[in-house]
Amino acid sequence: MKYLITFITLLVVYLFLAGFVIEEVILGSFVSAVLTILLANRLNFKVDWHFPLKLIKFIFVYIPVFIWKLILANIDVARRVLSFKIPLNPGIVKVKTNLKGDLGKLTLANSITLTPGTLSIDVEDDCIYVHTIDVKKSSKDQNQKEISGPFEKILGGIFE
Amino acid sequence: MTIVSYIFLIIGAMFFLLGGLGVLRMPDTFNRIQAGTKATTLGAFSIVIGVIFGSVENHLDWIPKLIIIIVFIAISSPIGSSTIAKATYRSKNIPDNLVQDDFKKRGENQ
Prior knowledge:
The structure holds two protein chains of two kinds.
Chain A: H1 2-18, H2 22-39, H3 51-82, E1 91-96, H4 102-113, E2 118-124, E3 127-132, H5 140-159
Chain B: H1 2-25, H2 29-54, H3 63-90
């Protein structure tokens, strides 16, 4: 299973870059087969039978939310940049996450960076340190809910 | 198709302009990184999507490559920005307008 997924990924990237011609398919499968035999044991990932389902969920649930948040983030940046006096209340807050896997944490940190007003600085065990443009003084939970809430739920369903 | 492509290219150029303005106008490093990352990521997406629409008619084989470009930008841009932010913090170049700083309390001298 691991070999198969490595092979398919390599072949798809090769064909995307080289073009879908019959000669390229033959050469590409040869190259990916050799690379798969060399690499697959050293790659550190686990796959199970839920993998295709997770991939479909990732593409159709996570990516639309992500793009919507990215557009919101850009409108937010535009609003701040174009106003005369830039409204700022910056600070670094600590956000706890329930995701376990490394890939899940990476995706969560990347999503946090690209959502409005936040920038993840470092990941440590189960905390992400986030620089945010607008700290809510009132309570810690509110910050946390606002920063990682929407993605935490979606990614929890995918990477667990 | 050409018109749609031009619209996306113009939107992307506008986001790049806003990102540049943000880098100039924001008061400290972290906020500059934020403005730079977000605006240029969506700007690059938009420009590549514009090129995709423009190449539908006579360069159909460019489209997979452009999709790969989008994926790599989406992965590498946030990682780069957060690495710069961490390096900024490590070099003790911390702006003094932070109202809250949880990052200080962790074991900084490791």
